[in-house]
Protein 1
Amino acid sequence: MKIIRTAAIAALTALTAGTLVAQDPQAKAILDELSNKTRKYTSITSDFDFTLQDKLAEIEQTQSGTLKMQGRKYTIRLGDNTIFSDGETRWTYNEDMNEVYIDHAESGEDALNPSDIYTIWETGFKHYYDGEVQVEGAPHHLIKLNPTDPEGKAYHTVKLYIHKKEMQVSKMEILGKQGDDYTYLVNTFATDKEYPSSAFSFDKAKYPGVEEIDNR
């Protein structure tokens, strides 16, 4: 499903820029604790479900994905697409087409580093504490984020569901202005696993007949 992969990357990429403004003290205290904890991890490994709901087009799609992240290096698999990045080069491999697109790691509108995703709340948003809710039977903090530059965004609100005991994001919702909503549900979350450098780069030898499209 190319549409859902593109939507997933675009939704996350759209969250990663802005300026710092005054914040709700309770929300800021929780997010600061979350950021400080996240930055101590040497790696993050996660399984997640991504759901795209387009109310106008009456479309709802869900796909499962996996993430491996170590510093600025990462590998994301979503459907038949896998993205590798060693911090300098990004490879986007499509299994169905047996094609790989090669780009500089930080180039293009799809440029995404998951290490930014886990700290997106630090800049570009107003933070509001919206109480305690239950997610999968566990108590969570619900924090709403509104962009400081709403005119330049395709969404109006981001909801973060933060596990009170574990102090980690279990769920994130991005609410679009045009009725298109995105939900990330974290199913598993592990930290400090060790990965070789090869886990974050594309090995052409493992994909016989692959077509390379080099955009660098």
Protein 2
Amino acid sequence: MEILFATSNKNKVQEAAEALKPKGITVKHLLFGHNEIRSDSLEDIAREAVQAAYKKCKKPVFVEDSGLFIGSLNGFPGTYSAWALGKLGLSGILRLLQDMPDRSARFEACIAYHDGSKVSAFEGVCKGSIAIEPRGSSGFGYDPIFVPEGYSQTFAENITLKNKLSHRYISLLEFSKSFVSGS
């Protein structure tokens, strides 16, 4: 089965393709730029974006929105993660946490899928913490500073770990179950 993934982020497409291939799902990239709504809810953002993507392609399609939620920063950057990374960079995020003893964080992802008649949402969460300094060269975004719970390496230091534990991977697995069960 082939499915469209509407995004402007080719790294997300690669992750989705690798995660869904063993499930018999081929991911095809639909280059999609969209001025997403502002909301504190990943699900609201993803649902609105998939409606716009479906309008564009008129085929079953999915989008994914994700964010890094840092405990001591009251969930910041959250749904503004891409914006914050672009403005502050990893070094800016680390400076915000410089004197914070609580470095707990979680990645969240929400996939919204439009099948032509209804929109479904699938979520994934990966708990962890923020490293003291960036480590590793794999992955993208916040991967060099995110350490998943129960591990000592960042996602950027161990991409295999990321591919098995990430918020995106978990949401993609939930999404793939909808095709197996016929939901």
